[in-house]
Design goal:
The complex is a heterodimer of chains A (118) and B (114). By secondary structure, chain A is mostly beta strands. Chain A contains no helices and twelve strands. The mean pLDDT of chain A is 90. With 114 residues, chain B is mainly beta. Chain B contains no helices and eleven strands. Chain B is globular, with a radius of gyration of 13 Å. The N and C termini of chain B lie far apart (36 Å).
Chain lengths: 118, 114
């Protein structure tokens, strides 16, 4: 069954340091996509980065990069040079895009609350 | 483009009352979703619709029904509200299966059941 696990309920990081948020997943489907979202205290969901299971290179979007280790089924988010505005909840999510299914169900992990110290 | 819109933004119900949460998207997306987010928790999928005319159960469908009215609109109905359904409800939409399109989220509906 499809499952996303985020084992860090909360993290504190000093401003300007790099931070890694962990995400592991479980799926029997060979074709899938992995997402990271940010949810600030205002409540909206903000898309950060995407990694496809067949993508050869790790995804990068500005200060965000995704450390994708397929054999270990992990998709950790790395934020370089953290800023005060990075304080938020971060969610890892997965979509199974099976060949024989038109469904595009996406499920989320329980999230990690990141707090940046000045 | 408005993106994904949800109505209402806030709602208070008494136990046993019914209501429908409305969601619409103007991005011509095939897939639409309803999630709930309890305080301090992640998002749990209630129902989703991969395409117009189809709906499927997610992780926590009990106590809810959905209707994919057309490609734009996907409503969530609580037939007999219970305090356990107090939550923030998010609607989302995304493009075509197999593509990397991320989900676009609405602003959420904060529901309290007394």
């Amino acid at each position: 069954a499809q499952k996303i696990t985020q084992t860090q309920p909360g993290m504190f990081v000093q401003e300007k340091e790099a931070v890694t948020l962990d995400c592991t997943y479980d799926t029997s489907d060979p074709s899938y996509g992995l997402f990271w979202y940010k949810q600030p205290s205002s409540g909206e969901m903000i898309f950060l980065i995407y990694q496809g299971s067949y993508d050869q290179q790790n995804a990068t979007e500005g200060r965000y990069s995704l450390n994708f280790q397929k054999a270990r089924k992990s998709a950790n988010l790395v934020i370089s040079a953290s800023q005060l505005g990075d304080s938020a909840m971060y969610f890892c999510a997965m979509r199974e895009v099976g060949l024989w299914s038109s469904a595009s169900k996406i499920i989320f992990g329980s999230g990690t609350r990141l707090s940046i110290r000045p | 483009n408005a993106g994904v819109t949800q109505t209402p933004k806030f709602q208070v119900l008494k136990t046993g009352q019914s209501m429908t949460l409305q969601c619409a998207q103007d991005m011509n997306h095939n897939s639409m979703y309803w999630y709930r987010q309890d305080p301090g928790m992640g998002l749990r999928l209630i129902y989703y619709s991969a395409s117009e005319g189809t709906t499927d159960k997610g992780e926590v469908p009990n106590g809810y029904n959905v209707s994919r009215l057309n490609k734009r609109e996907f409503s969530l109905r609580l037939e007999s509200a219970a305090p356990s359904q107090t939550s923030v409800y998010f609607c989302a939409s995304s493009g075509t299966p197999g593509q990397k399109n991320e989900q676009f989220f609405g602003p959420g509906t904060r529901l309290t059941v007394l």
